[in-house]
Design a protein that fits this description.
The chain is of the alpha+beta class. The chain is 17% helix and 32% strand. The chain is built from 2 helices and 4 strands. A 4-stranded antiparallel beta sheet has the order 1-2-3-4.
């Protein structure tokens, strides 16, 4: 996980973009978000495959999905809740 953080450090991300990296079930998850209520981008590394998605606005409402690396590692929010 430290290597993922090192790669992110090398990117020219806007300083307002928050990032969170976590592992779960052998997968690495990454969340990038600009603020607490804005959209976020989630990514998960599964073997040699990378999955990237942005949860729907409904899924990002307070009390729903969190914008964390754990959420990404668990593959939550990839599909519409309805």
């Amino acid at each position: 996980m430290a290597s993922v953080g090192a790669v992110l450090d090398g990117l020219a991300l806007d300083p307002r973009v928050r990032r969170d990296v976590a592992t779960a079930g052998g997968h690495v998850g990454l969340a990038l978000r600009a603020d607490r209520r804005g959209a976020c981008l989630l990514a998960r590394v599964v073997g040699d495959r990378v999955e990237v998605w942005s949860p729907s606005a409904v899924q990002l409402q307070p009390g729903e999905l969190s914008r964390t690396g754990e959420t990404a590692a668990a593959s939550q929010g990839q599909r519409s809740p309805h």
